[in-house]
Amino acid sequence: MTFAIEKPTKAKLEDVRVLSQKNRQADENPGIQLPLSVKLSNHALASLNGALKEFLFTKNGVEKPVATRKKDNATAGLEGVDPISDLPDLSPIGSKIKAFNWNEEVTGVTLTIGFATQKLEITDGVARAFRIQPQEGGTIQLKFIVEAPDASEKVFAKLAKFKSREVEIQLVQPASAQVDVEDDDATKTKKLTPQEAWPFPKDQDKKTPAQSAADAFAANEGAGKNKPASQVPQPRQRRASANRPSLKSPVE
């Protein structure tokens, strides 16, 4: 899974929770859990599953969005405003779904949180517990949790100021994780040579080198197998029996 929020995006930090393991040593820092809520274009669904977008959204749906001050995501029908998505309307199924859980985990993420002039970076995190709510106008409300180990006192002190506030976040995966996925795919599709595909030990695949005529003659001579033509037994020929009827037609 390659879920990411590469551009700074407005989000809400709903809580700051402490994760403490029972076997944690006295000098070790506890972990941290951050529930986040963010509004994204429905294009982001492709990073979760390629079929989700067309499953939840459509174009020219039955119900048209109404542009009001309270409904700021209904921009598809406003003049002079670029549409958020090419599929701005909820599908018949999407209109019946309020919100649903998506059971995926993204490991090794780096979460950057910005508030006012302050920025905080949390590395080696895990994004999980996704909850998706499709909305009219081509957007989704996405909630998820980021957990990370070894959070210092300084990190907790800064995050306490961000709690329940609107912040800007970025969530990225390390480049090595994407390279590993590509390498795995290349390995799966690699065509094996006949030698690599041979299921038996390689030394069994070695063939005896071809023997020349001179070497074969010398070997037979040493074994006493070479004999003059007069000593080679000739094949026995059958004698024609006098009583056996001839298959030839009699000459008239």
Account of the protein in words:
The protein contains 5 helices and 10 strands; from the N terminus they run E-E-E-H-E-E-E-E-E-E-H-E-H-H-H. The strands form 2 sheets. The chain has a 6-stranded antiparallel barrel with strand order 1-3-9-8-7-10. Strands 4-5 form a two-stranded antiparallel sheet. Strand 8 (118-135) and strand 9 (139-148) form a beta hairpin. Residues 65-72, 74-82 and 178-189 have low confidence and may be disordered. With 252 residues, the protein is an alpha+beta fold. The chain is elongated and about 115 Å long. It has a domain at 5-173.
Describe the SSE topology.
Layout: E1 5-13, E2 17-19, E3 31-41, H1 52-56, E4 57-58, E5 89-90, E6 100-102, E7 106-115, E8 118-135, E9 139-148, H2 153-162, E10 166-172, H3 175-188, H4 194-197, H5 213-222
Antiparallel strand pairs: 1-3, 1-10, 2-3, 3-9, 4-5, 6-8, 7-8, 7-10, 8-9
Region (Disordered): 176-252
Biased composition (Low complexity): 213-223
List keywords for this structure.
two-stranded antiparallel ribbon; 6-stranded antiparallel barrel; 30% strand; 252 residues
At a glance:
Helices cover 17% and strands 30% of the residues. It has helices at 52-56, 153-162, 175-188, 194-197, 213-222, and strands at residues 5-13, 17-19, 31-41, 57-58, 89-90, 100-102, 106-115, 118-135, 139-148, 166-172. It is elongated, with a radius of gyration of 39 Å.
